Every structure is written in structure tokens, then in C-alpha cells.
Amino acid sequence: MSLLRRDPTTGRWVVFSDNASPVPVEPGPCAFCEGNEKLTPPEIVAWGRGGRKPNGPGWWVRVVPNARPLFTIEGRLERRADGMYDATSGTGAHEIVVESPEHEHSLSELSPEQVARVLRAYAQRIEDLKRDGRVRSIFIFKNQGVLAGAGRPGHAHSQVIGLPVTPKALKELLEGARTHYQLKERCVFCDILREELAIESRLIQVTDRFVSLSPYASRHPFESWILPREHAMNFESLGGADIDDLAAVLISLLRRLERVLPEPSYNLFLYSGPNHAVHPKRWPTLANDFHWHIQILPRLVHVAGFEVGSGFYANPVTPEQAAAVLRDVL
Length: 330
Description:
By secondary structure, the chain is of the alpha+beta class. It has 7 helices and 14 strands. The longest helix has 21 residues, at about 240-260. It is globular.
């Protein structure tokens, strides 16, 4: 089992695990393709044609345990002091969402109906993992391309991790949202939406339900966000029409990025509310101050000493420039 250690100077958790080491991809059949189900661990859940047998063909979207997990569902959660330090067992979940039975390279190559199925799989996994009291937060991400850390290029997939702690990046978002709400009694993300819809220069696409935009303080060139126009803390609360619209907006944004940046590497992050039932008193205004959203960070520039040491980001492309290019490309 892996082990988490907390850095007391920053509050950052670090996971120590043999599975964190990169493993060369061996030549051979793709384990994620339909017909090769026996090459993955037994599936957790799958959606497909009626009469399909578990761990067999006929699926549309399939969720399986990661063969090299950073966190494992088995075992008791153990938190302990290690002298002045804090450590936690790597109890949680680490799952793979196989986004298509076909050997497609990118999520953008899938149909809107198929992307909607992927998004529904995300919502189901968040909802299911939140029933586990050991899980503090659920983090969904996608690595596209080698520069973004994709361990197995070639078949569209994403990852779901159930964490026994709140990761620093999410905690910073939660604390920023809470501080804004304490000062103004308004959701900071709702305020961002109002500002961007009024100014328009950083907008990429607007629908009745969603907005895609280049954020005001973009960290990377062509960084893009998708936010729901209606306030919602949890991604899993989305209804069917919302899912369908989000699928279309997500495909459009990815295709815009791929048109401007041929075969780009990027990371996609879904930030949804933490498992509030575990510690409801820790985030008392969470339902009012946090707003789930998707962030996409193209990996065009390497993070170097200045960025790592200072926490600053140096971006050669303003969000206004990026949004103008992405608006016009389709």
C-alpha cells in the first residue's frame, strides 16, 4: 500500500508508491479496446448494449481499476503522527474510465452522445465514491499526450481518484471561494461569469447552460475553463440536458484547441465539491461558495526554475489573445 506524507511548511501531501514509477508500454494488443477485456482488472461498472455479460464486449464506456494504483480501496484508513509530521495510508480508489470501445486517440474524436456517456460515468463514479466515508475528495483528470504525462497514448481514457485527503490545488480553490463569500456573500465563480459575460473579450463559447473562456490569470498559453452558468457545487447533480450540452461544449473546445495546436498535449481537470458528508462543519458555506468547473491546461511550455521556486507562472499568450484565436478557429 502507498503512503501519504504531509509537508508541514506548505500543507502539500506527497504520495510514495512504487506505482508512481513510469513503466514502459510493452508492444502488444491494447488492453482498452473492445474484445481485450481480459487484459484489464475486472470492471467496476460498464454501460453498453442490453444482454451484455460483465467483462465482455458490447460496452460503450467501461470503468476498471488502475492496474498500477496510487490508492487502493482495500484496507483500513490509517492516520498517524510520525514525530512532528503527519502520515496517512494510501487508502482510496484509482480507476480508469475507458472512453470508447474503439481505438480513438482523443476525446474530441468521439460523438457528442459518446462524450455524454463519459460525463455520466464521471458523475456516477463521484456519487458512488462519496458513499465511502474514507474518501475526502474525488479528483477526475485526463492526460492527453506524452508532455502531459499520458502513460499509455493511443486510446482515449481518463482517471478517477478517490483521495483520503483534500489535495492542495482543490483546497486552494475551496479556501479562495470561501474567503470571497465571507467578504461579499457571493460565489466567486458566479462573479467571474458575470464579469466575463459583460466584457466578452475572454469568452470562447456561450450556450444557455455553459460558458467556455480563457481565465483572466491564465497559467499556460491557451488555458481554458468550462463553467456552468447556473450555480452548482457538485458535478454529479447535472441533469440529462445539462450533460448533453456540456458534451457539445467540451468537444467544441477540444477541437478548437487541436485546430490551433496540432496534436497538443494537455491536462483536463474536473473540480467538483469534496465529500461534504465526511466533515460538514469544515466547509459550512460550501453549497453557496463553490462552483464545479473544468480546467484544460495545454502543455506547450516547460515549467522551469522560476515557476517551481516562486509559484509564479510566466505566460507568453494573454487570455484575450487566446480567446480571440479560439473563437475564430471553428
